[in-house]
Amino acid sequence: MLLAKNVALLRHLPKVDGLRLAELGRSADVSSPLEEVTGFGDNPGNLRMFAFVPAQLQKPRALVVVLHGCGQTAAAYDLGAGWSTLAQHYGFALVMPEQQRINNGNTCFNWFNPEDTARDSGEARSIREMVAHMVQAHRIDSRRVFITGLSAGGGMTSVMLATYPEVFAAGAVIAGLPYGIASNLREALDGMFHSPARPERELGDFVRRASNHRGPWPKVSVWHGSADRTVNPGNANEIVKQWLDVHDLPAAPMAETIVDGYPRQAWWNKDGETLVESYAITDMAHGTPLGLADNDQRYGIEGAFLIEAGISSSYHIAKFFGLTGWIADAAGKKVEARPATSKPGLPPAPHLARSIRAAVAEEPAEPKRAEARGFDLGQIITRALTAAGLMK
Predict the structure, then answer these.
(1) 31 is known as an active-site residue
(2) With 0-12 CB in 10 A as exposed, 13-18 as middle and 19+ as buried, what is 290?
């Protein structure tokens, strides 16, 4: 495609699938729990900062950075993906950067502009300053900072993980793109529509050259709909290849399972810790997958590029980050999350089938755990019955 045609295409992105995303964003702002923060730094990328800090925070304190997609606002994406509800439920802080139309006519994060994707420059530095502000203002544990984003926000998530790998413990890219594949609009569109395959080493070198950091590297979760016509699903494989090379992991997945009806692949280190995972959401178009979480709660609502798919990506990402082990009770105290208990403020007990499925999921064929003990079906069923409230 000629550059002129590409520009014309981008001008129409806010109305993709007939949805006026800017209007959705404005309507969501009215009741949003997010509060704007100013004076957080030099802000060379000219972004707006919105934050949510629940009254009760789990310890050590954690922070999740959430990046919206094109045409959306921070409030609109929060409403749709349910992150502030998750933050309230599990006691972690939230920061949601927001793009301004003066920077990008479609309010996309500029994940391909060299001045915005280099360490200590442009939008990347602005987001880093937001993190530093939150860590200092709310005594966040610097080892518990995470990031996720959709589409262009997913591309910018890749940017932040590559340029500030020492800042983030883990990240999740939804319908996004790998770091370093584009430095101008033409290359960005080629990556979006065609996702040309690159050698693993080349992709890994993009990350290694982005900073002086030499490890340990962030963990990465990748999500993509197989019917995505906005960002080619091949980008999910390229992101996985990039981070497998960075983590020095083999190309073949170490586990292939089904989660809520969708295939998940996983790779772990010698200690059994999952470092890279990938979810392929079969037949889903471009967007963030929504559904009932394992705790029988629903986070977010359907909207533009927020798609009911029967799986709660926000919940599973928070779980991957290690944030779902604690919740606040009605009295505002910290309690360990136990789904079967009837204590006020806790989620209802899951039904037995889900409990058994969850119990089996807790027995991955990971090296360290497999060596410690064999597969004990009786123990799994007992744990499932206990979780379901049918056994003490």
Answers:
(1) no
(2) buried
